[in-house]
Amino acid sequence: MKNRICFFAHYDQDGIIDDYVVYYIKELKKVCNDIVFASVSNVSEKEQKKLDGIITTFINRENEGYDFGSWRDGMKHIGFENLSQYDEVVLANDSCYGPIYNIEDVFATMEIKKIGAWSITIGESISRYLQSYFLVLRKEVFEKEFFVDFFLKVENKGSKIDYIKDFELGFSKLLMANNIKIAAYCKVSFLDTFKQGTILKIKAWYLRKFIPKYIRWTKSFGDDHKNLTKRQRIMLTIRKLCNLNYSNPSLIMVSIMIRKYKLPIVKVMLFRDNPFYENIRRAEKMIKKYTKYDFSLIERHLHRVGK
After folding, report:
1. Which pLDDT tens digit goes with each residue over 207-238?
2. CA distance linking residue 129 with residue 123, whole number of Å
3. Name one GO molecular function term (predicted).
4. How far apart are CA 254 and CA 280, in angstroms?
5. Are 275 and 251 in contact (CB under 8 A)?
6. What is the pTM (predicted TM-score) of this model?
């Protein structure tokens, strides 16, 4: 096994390390020699004991800077200069359930590829980018000065939208600007993307034609969706569908991803919020039929967070 270190970003509204997270960390330990767990949830020592013997370092930090801030602080704690002892750096977070497929098989598949960085899926919203819920970086990335400079410039202020633009998209832009080859484990075919995109475009055309005034009305909602009524959430989703460029396979075609592309981790957002009204029951059936993942981990977490 290659010598890897994983920096794991954690947030929980109740300050709990949920069972699905413990399982995720245990599986990551199969492919990572060291794991640095950074939480912004003021996790108690009792909760931390759930990870005894699995992780290398636990960091409680202020709730700021999102995932990139947690990864930055983890790397600063270890020392950027000490990353050179590793073959690969893994950046992950608790926004996913899984792995639902064998994580060792995922790394074995990607190990033979001549690339500098990879993710589970690639998005193409504004530009082509590695989706940051799971990133793997090789020496040609993390030993370079541009990598250190990038993470040292990660700020703790700003909205989530700004962070996505500046850091998730910005990081991939930086990689490609430095001639780093990138790839995704789940390489979705053009046909599947076209088919799913066409279905959603038909829906979007219908929505644009018959309810444009509601779509305009939802623009005033802003980025804070927590206090919206059910009707407002529906209208906001409609606007999202109308503006969607169908580039996020982990949220809009997850059943196909699980069955055909063996998507190894699935987004918590999909089951908790289902922002694009996917067929969640079908996704659940795919997980139970094609994987050995304990689906009760998902059910218990959703029950605890009130979903």
Report:
1. 555 555 444 444 444 445 556 666 666 656 65
2. 5
3. transferase activity
4. 9
5. yes
6. 0.85
Answer yes or no: do 207 and 90 share one domain. no
246 and 221 part of one domain:
yes
Q: Which residues contact 119 (CB under 8 A, 6 or more apart)?
A: 130, 131, 132, 133, 134, 135, 136, 182, 184, 185
Which residues form the domain of 69?
4-184
Please write the tens of the pLDDT for every residue from 110-126: 999 999 999 999 887 66
C-alpha distances in Å from residue 72, one per residue of 56, 68, 173: 16, 6, 18
User: Do 234 and 164 have their domain in common?
Assistant: no
Residue the block writes with tokens 């899926």: 121
Cβ neighbour number for residue 282 with a 10 Å cutoff:
14
Q: Please count the structural domains in the chain.
A: 2
Output phi, psi for 72, to 5 deg.
-60, -50
Is the predicted pLDDT of residue 264 greater than 90, yes or no? yes
Q: How far apart are the first and last CA of the chain?
A: 39
Quick one: 171 and 242 in the same domain?
no
Query: Residue 199 above 70 pLDDT?
Result: no
